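Q: Please design a sequence for this.
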């Protein structure tokens, strides 16, 4: 083993306490040496917070200020706790306890239960769904599997917010929480669930915290025994603590103030589980003498990525936004973030897969690339596109689309309906393939309207809705296809995506991406209604959606692509708009650019054609009215390159000829007129009267595919010629 290899795998333990501080920046060093009194570290994304707090603990231990066994460091995942223990060992501070809140509380509960209560600790139920199901049965309430998961999540939320069953309906109303069922009914189920636990002498994970809190509150001798052992506390991800965890922390501390907390209010994205940044934001008020250190030197991302992240928070509102951190990149300049607009979702997935393949060919490891989306149901189209492009991938935090329970069940039902055909009464009245599929899916939880709120019921509906959309697209691409044909297609897709993969591109939801980072990140599906999600109604919910996008942006080290599709499927109405969070950031959407310094971010609009039809690069910078010079933000105005109410120099006769031609072509293709060109695009053509393919191509709404299909016709009409003449596209060529 070479010295270099040994050094990278087994870093040398610092020889002295002062050597622990080597390599820390001034702010990190301030954290590491602030060993007395309360300390609050406000640490932005990529600023080395884990490095700072582990070096703080190690420096205190190595300097003799802290005894290893007297330190308790708590965080929120076993992975993070394990990473912290590993770093502390490498720094010569082995013996320090680094645990999750639940793990630390469970050890204490197991040790002190016989003394405080007597007898053995009740059995811990790791999955409470079965008990919730029994509670529902006793209450004569019918819940399917997904409703059980949602009700279980509500019970967990109630317990971590210290809400008893009788108070649950009032708590839902007070917090404007979108409950999955009638709050009074959930309160009844919650009460019965607690009764069943008592009858069975079992406890759940939330009880571990609640019972520990109860013992420490009632038994001062036990509380003092714990306080005598743990004299110094460090809490990571402090913006994610629940009221119950905060209460436990206060009882551990007692009257002491030897506490260091680390967090970033701008990364609070789990409020639906009871997490709140209020404890972080109120820390200085509770501890007026606290040392507050801000870490803003970003070592993860390039200046271009950091500039966009800062721009997102500049537009934020609310209490967390008032405490946002302005990051400063410490890396060399990199490529500008790329904004890509696609005609439809399949085109977005195909375009993303092509870009991923290009990055891999350019030397970026597949394992250093991620595609991030808002909900897990979006994964299917990207799984398919990456598989088609021959790019290996892995899913994080979710099952592959065709492995999900509801998708497997729906597939089996579709297979049965295809086998029985006309003899299946479920298909009565369903004349075409999409209608047949919806008839089958309706028996498995799909409906034309999505369920309210988030949760397992919504996730199930999204998966089934994705199948319904896939049926629409398949029927459109294969006129006359039968249900058996669709089932065969689904089987082929499932087989292709079940193939074992080596290290590959990560597909993950934005929530699952928290705490991770990659060289290249693709943020996809960025339309209003998806981010922010449709069921985000209140100002607080909208701001949490903005923070979710911020988390996504700050996962990227170098390459960042943000994309959206104007319609769901090819030929669909382009009614979607880019996420409101990008307004003023992406070029052409307002006065603020996304460049760094004088440079502007790149914006590209992807074609909706097959692989190989390249995207055309649009001019960078804001789009301005060619009449009055005002910056344009509305899609229609940007197509016309003028404000809606500014004077038009449109050739009315040319516009009417274009409309007549469009009607003829739409009839030939069997499509709505707007699928050829929208009214706004025809108006833009009639105002600018292009004389070449290049002049026509730069008009928004044309694009590579439509230029190839209709360009010759349009240019002929603009030149006053017959569009059916030489060079015009024939119907069979389209």
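A: Design:
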């Amino acid at each position: 083993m070479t010295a270099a290899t040994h050094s990278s795998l087994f870093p040398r333990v610092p020889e002295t306490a002062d050597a622990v501080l080597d390599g820390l920046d001034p702010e990190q060093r301030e954290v590491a040496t602030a060993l007395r009194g309360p300390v609050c570290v406000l640490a932005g994304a990529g600023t080395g917070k884990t490095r700072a707090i582990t070096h703080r603990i190690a420096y205190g231990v190595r300097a003799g200020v802290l005894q290893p066994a007297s330190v308790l460091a708590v965080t929120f995942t076993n992975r993070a706790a394990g990473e912290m223990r590993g770093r502390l060992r490498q720094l010569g501070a082995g013996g320090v306890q680094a645990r999750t809140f639940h793990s630390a509380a469970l050890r204490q509960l197991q040790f002190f239960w016989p003394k405080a209560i007597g007898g053995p600790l009740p059995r811990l139920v790791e999955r409470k769904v079965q008990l919730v199901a029994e509670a529902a049965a006793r209450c004569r309430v019918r819940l399917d599997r997904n409703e059980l998961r949602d009700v279980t999540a509500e019970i967990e939320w109630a317990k971590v917010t210290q809400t008893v069953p009788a108070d649950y309906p009032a708590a839902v109303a007070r917090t404007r929480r979108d409950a999955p069922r009638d709050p009074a009914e959930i309160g009844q189920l919650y009460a019965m669930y607690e009764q069943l636990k008592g009858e069975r002498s079992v406890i759940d994970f939330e009880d571990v915290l609640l019972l520990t809190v109860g013992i420490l509150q009632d038994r001062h001798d036990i509380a003092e025994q714990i306080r005598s052992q743990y004299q110094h506390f460090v809490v990571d991800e402090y913006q994610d603590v629940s009221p119950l965890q905060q209460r436990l922390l206060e009882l551990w501390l007692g009257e002491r103030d030897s506490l260091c907390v680390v967090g970033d209010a701008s990364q609070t994205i789990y409020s639906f589980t009871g997490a709140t940044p209020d404890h972080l934001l109120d820390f200085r008020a509770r501890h007026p003498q606290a040392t507050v250190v801000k870490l803003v030197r970003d070592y993860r991302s390039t200046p271009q990525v950091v500039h966009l992240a800062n721009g997102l928070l500049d537009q934020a509102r609310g209490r967390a936004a008032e405490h946002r951190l302005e990051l400063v990149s410490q890396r060399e300049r990199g490529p500008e973030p790329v904004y890509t607009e696609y005609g439809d979702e399949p085109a977005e997935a195909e375009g993303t897969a092509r870009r991923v393949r290009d990055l891999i060919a350019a030397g970026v490891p597949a394992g250093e690339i991620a595609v991030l989306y808002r909900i897990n149901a979006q994964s299917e189209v990207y799984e398919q596109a990456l598989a088609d492009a021959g790019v290996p991938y892995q899913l994080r935090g979710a099952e592959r689309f065709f492995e999900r329970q509801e998708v497997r069940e729906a597939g089996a039902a579709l297979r049965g309906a295809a086998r029985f055909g006309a003899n299946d009464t479920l298909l009565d009245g369903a004349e075409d393939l999409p209608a047949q599929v919806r008839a089958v899916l309706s028996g498995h939880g799909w409906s034309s309207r999505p369920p309210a709120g988030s949760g397992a019921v919504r996730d199930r509906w999204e998966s089934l809705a994705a199948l319904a959309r896939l049926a629409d697209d398949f029927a459109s691409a294969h006129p006359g296809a039968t249900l058996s044909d669709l089932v065969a297609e689904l089987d082929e897709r499932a087989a292709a995506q079940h193939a074992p993969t080596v290290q590959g591109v990560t597909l993950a939801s934005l929530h699952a991406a928290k705490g991770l980072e990659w060289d290249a990140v693709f943020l996809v599906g960025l339309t209003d209604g998806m981010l922010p999600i449709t069921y985000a109604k209140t100002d607080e919910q909208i701001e949490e959606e903005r923070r979710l996008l911020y988390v996504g942006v700050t996962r990227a080290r170098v390459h960042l692509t943000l994309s959206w599709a104007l319609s769901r499927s090819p030929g669909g109405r382009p009614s979607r708009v880019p996420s409101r969070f990008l307004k003023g950031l992406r070029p052409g959407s307002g006065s603020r650019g996304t460049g760094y310094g004088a440079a502007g971010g790149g914006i590209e609009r992807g074609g909706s054609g097959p692989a190989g039809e390249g995207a055309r690069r649009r001019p960078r910078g804001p789009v301005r009215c060619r009449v009055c010079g005002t910056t344009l933000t509305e899609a229609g105005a940007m197509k016309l390159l003028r404000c809606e109410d500014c004077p038009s120099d449109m050739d009315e006769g040319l516009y009417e000829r274009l409309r007549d031609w469009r009607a003829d072509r739409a009839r030939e293709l069997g499509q709505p007129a707007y699928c050829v060109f929208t009214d706004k695009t025809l108006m833009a053509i009639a105002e600018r009267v292009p004389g070449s393919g290049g002049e026509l191509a730069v008009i928004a709404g044309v694009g590579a595919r439509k230029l190839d299909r209709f360009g010759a016709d349009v240019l002929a009409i603009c030149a006053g010629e017959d569009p059916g003449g030489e060079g015009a596209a024939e119907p069979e060529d389209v």
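Q: Thanks. Anything notable?
A: Confidence is low (pLDDT under 50) at residues 1-9, 498-502, 591-622, 726-734. The first strand starts at residue 39 and ends at 43.
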